[in-house]
């Protein structure tokens, strides 16, 4: 690895609230990284499930941690951003894990130069796994229909000086808003690296179907404020998307009842 690569400092930020088992798994996955120039920050929202004891237990592998009440997910992330001193930030929240011990080192070897450097991730739910391969190029259309995955994206620290911190008014989509503004308003550079960086736990708030309507509403508000010209396109997409969700739900129900009707 070149001397320039060795000097690149990665700040990994973990936020946690009452997820003691997930927190320990995340800390262990970070602590096993063989890339040396890592700063590790954990922001805990005043958990009462034993998380504080886990943070004390692993104090020797954490550069900074705090356990105090916060104002939500993005307030906690912003605390971490303000503390971080790395060249790039990577958000690995409690319950998520870095896929292998050498992954951060491999990413740095491939090259971290662009404003956003995005790898791939695995969605983990109970015993199942499915992959998300990030696109090689992105456009406004990317954010109308999807996003780039927050837990496997190296974000250049200076972007937060240019764009600002995460919008704490949103509960779910502030990272989506940040990436949208970065690429489509501020013309930030982007690169995809074909490396699976993160095991992402699908039990989180953004993966819960009960929150889909809130996600849609928050995205609509972002577009109305920043890209009003494209708002109608988004609304049309959401109508189609909602119909697809309805059809998929009906298909699942039909398959369920078919299984019930089969003779044992």
From TrEMBL:
Q: Which CDD domains match?
A: GT_2_WfgS_like
Gene Ontology MF annotations? hexosyltransferase activity
Has UniProt tagged this entry with the keyword Iron-sulfur? no
Q: Which domain of life is it from?
A: Bacteria
Q: Which UniProt keywords apply?
A: Transferase
What residue stretches are annotated with the Glycosyltransferase 2-like domain?
11-137
Keyword Cytoplasm in the entry? The reply is no
**The name this protein goes by in its record:** Glycosyltransferase involved in cell wall bisynthesis
Q: Which organism is it from?
A: Pedobacter hartonius
Lineage, top ranks = Bacteria, Pseudomonadati, Bacteroidota, Sphingobacteriia, Sphingobacteriales
């Amino acid at each position: 690895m070149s001397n320039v690569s060795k000097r690149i400092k990665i700040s990994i930020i973990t936020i946690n609230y009452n997820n003691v088992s997930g927190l320990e798994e995340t800390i262990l996955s970070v602590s096993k990284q063989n890339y040396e120039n890592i700063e590790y920050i954990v922001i805990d929202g005043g958990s009462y499930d034993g998380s504080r004891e886990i943070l004390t237990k692993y104090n020797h592998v954490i550069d900074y941690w705090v356990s105090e009440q916060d104002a939500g997910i993005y307030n906690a992330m912003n605390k971490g951003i303000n503390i971080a001193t790395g060249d790039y930030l990577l958000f690995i929240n409690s319950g998520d894990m870095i896929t292998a011990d050498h992954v951060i080192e491999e990413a740095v070897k491939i090259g971290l130069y662009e404003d956003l450097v995005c790898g791939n991730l695995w969605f983990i739910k109970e015993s199942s796994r499915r992959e998300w391969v990030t696109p090689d190029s992105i456009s406004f259309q990317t954010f109308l229909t999807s996003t780039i995955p927050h837990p496997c994206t190296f974000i250049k620290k200076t972007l937060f000086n240019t764009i600002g911190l995460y919008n704490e008014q949103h509960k779910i989509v502030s990272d989506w808003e940040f990436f949208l503004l970065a690429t489509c308003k501020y013309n930030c550079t982007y690169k995809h690296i074909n490396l699976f960086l993160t095991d992402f736990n699908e039990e989180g708030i953004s993966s819960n179907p009960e929150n889909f309507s809130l996600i849609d509403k928050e995205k609509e508000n972002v577009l109305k404020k920043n890209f009003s010209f494209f708002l109608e396109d988004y609304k049309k997409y959401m109508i189609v998307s909602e119909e697809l969700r309805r059809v998929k739900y009906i298909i699942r129900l039909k398959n369920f009842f078919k299984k019930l009707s089969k003779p044992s």
